[in-house]
Design brief:
The chain has one domain: B-lactam Antibiotic, Isopenicillin N Synthase, Chain (Jelly Rolls, Sandwich), CATH 2.60.120.330. Strand 1, helix 1 and strand 2 form a beta-alpha-beta unit. The two termini are about 35 Å apart. An eight-stranded mixed beta sheet has the order 1-2-10-7-12-5-4-3. It has a four-stranded antiparallel beta sheet with strand order 6-11-8-9, with no helix packed on it. It has a two-stranded antiparallel sheet with strand order 13-14. It has eight helices and 14 strands. With about 325 residues, the chain is α+β, with helices and mostly antiparallel strands.
């Protein structure tokens, strides 16, 4: 296993979104990228993809509408707060989430976009709902292509096997979530709790995450030696990483790696807010997660039950 000090970059030219019909792409043509992605997921659980075909203008538009929402007063945002019992959709205020239970709550806020449990609760920010809906669709398409490559890299008989387990994204039968994280500019040290960070050490819960960072950076990823290494924003790339459910599904062949966002040391960076967009892809609720290698290393569990068990301690 490689000693990873940097996160690998995989070029997916020929299978990005600019390829209109991916069904016509021959498996052998994309095998090298499938192998590169799976190798990265075995070695560190993260990789950047480039030539993915997602227009930068769409990412910029997402950041614009999200920033307009986060700039609103707390009283406004409260009307859109996430309802714990009924769903994922909505605003998570600062201090609501604690991703690492050994630390104080995360110094961030977020907006989760899951249209199927929104009950029409979309902020009246111009183009908010249409921008988020459009981007969810783009991320869904991108995720299916990455899952195809992972199916090939894992030598599954059907290269569409993993894709077929993610059909309901954006519908009632899926907990897949598009989220925007907002890390406010940092106050003087006195206002921070001891040991508090922007985002505590954690691994993601689902199958695959697409992450779009702004240019502020700060994300760190833990390699197999247990060292945290930087995963800075690289223009023209999307960072992808594996979730706990996929690690279990592959009987630990692929890794769901812990990652975090600390408080910057540099005073100039501390004074900047930071924003990131994450698309947390999760298999459809009724998909049974059974070890793909037939090893029975883990008991079968439904996607929905797995997610519910993992989310509970965070709030």
């Amino acid at each position: 296993m490689a000693n990873m000090t940097t996160v690998p970059i995989v070029d997916i030219t020929g299978y990005g979104l600019d390829v209109v019909n991916e069904d016509k792409v021959d498996t052998e043509t994309v095998r090298y990228m499938a192998d590169d992605i799976c190798r990265a997921m075995r070695d560190i659980g993260f990789c950047y993809i480039k030539n993915h075909g997602i227009p930068q203008s769409k990412i910029d538009q997402m950041n614009t509408v999200a920033m307009e929402f986060f700039d609103k007063p707390v009283e406004y945002k409260n009307a859109y707060q996430r309802r714990h019992i009924t769903g994922i959709h909505g605003w998570a205020p600062r201090d609501m989430e604690t991703l690492n239970p050994d630390r104080p709550s995360d110094f961030k806020e977020a907006f989760n976009f899951t249209p199927m449990d929104a009950d029409g609760r979309f902020p009246d920010v111009q183009d908010f709902e249409v921008t988020m809906t459009d981007f969810l669709l783009i991320c869904h398409k991108m995720t299916l292509r990455i899952l195809d490559l992972m199916s090939i890299g894992l030598h599954l008989e059907d290269r569409q096997f993993l894709r077929k387990c993610h059909k309901a994204i954006g519908q009632k039968n899926s907990t897949t979530t598009l989220r925007v994280n907002f890390y406010p500019a940092l106050p003087s040290d006195e206002d921070m709790k001891p040991n508090q960070v922007r985002c505590g050490e954690h691994s993601d819960y689902g199958s695959l995450t697409l992450l779009f960072q702004d240019d502020v950076g700060g994300l760190e990823v833990r390699n197999v030696e247990g060292e945290y290494i930087p995963a800075p924003p690289i223009p023209g790339t999307v960072l992808i990483n594996l979730g706990d459910m996929m690690q279990r599904w592959t009987a630990d062949e692929l890794l769901a790696t812990k990652h975090r966002v600390l408080i910057p040391d540099d005073e100039m960076t501390r004074r900047k807010s930071r924003q990131s967009i994450a698309f947390f892809a999760v298999p459809d609720n009724d998909v049974m997660i059974e070890c793909l290698d037939k090893s029975d290393k883990y008991e079968p569990i439904s996607s929905l039950q797995f997610i519910q068990e993992r989310i509970a301690p965070t709030y």
